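Ticket reopened. Same input as before:
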Amino acid sequence: AQSVTQPDIHITVSEGASLELRCNYSYGATPYLFWYVQSPGQGLQLLLKYFSGDTLVQGIKGFEAEFKRSQSSFNLRKPSVHWSDAAEYFCAVGLSNFGNEKLTFGTGTRLTIIP
Amino acid sequence: DTGVSQDPRHKITKRGQNVTFRCDPISEHNRLYWYRQTLGQGPEFLTYFQNEAQLEKSRLLSDRFSAERPKGSFSTLEIQRTEQGDSAMYLCASRGTTSSYNSPLHFGNGTRLTVT
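Engineering reply: fixed in the latest deploy. New output:
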């Protein structure tokens, strides 16, 4: 069965600083990978996804992520964070044979932005 | 696109009571999903529908849980004889299948259930 690990429970960065959120997955075949963001009391919004092709994917709000098969990683990055980026971030993996029928999510990384 | 709508936003109930939640997906989406999210965890898959057919159920969905999507539009999730462990955020999501794997899940804002 597939699994997702987000090793950082909570990260604090200064506004304007760069950001990298880590995600490692476990799955035998090529996975479908996703990053979602969740603001307090809200549902999840898709930031970006990787299915195949270019391993560096661009998403909304200035985020990008890089798929590294050798490291089983799909880390999320942003060159300069804004106070509005404070939220919970979830990495997810989907089965490649069924698309994203059943996503497996990590436990999330809570991002705090300080002035 | 009015988004995925869930009702109610919050529900407080006493242990042993039955509760029902409703989800209205985006109108042209034929696939509908239920996830459960407990505090400090990521969402966990419960079940999904294609039109009115329930195609997969997680082992998390005990016999006390039942989901329906009678006309292939809105869906309901009922929990019978609620337990304190049922306290969680219940998230609904939908997507179309016109683009197969490339269509993302659209999540609602969830129903937060508290069982006292």
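The radius of gyration of chain A is 13 Å. Chain A touches chain B at residues 4, 32, 34, 36, 41-46, 49, 51, 90, 92, 99-108 (CB under 8 Å). Please confirm and we'll close it.
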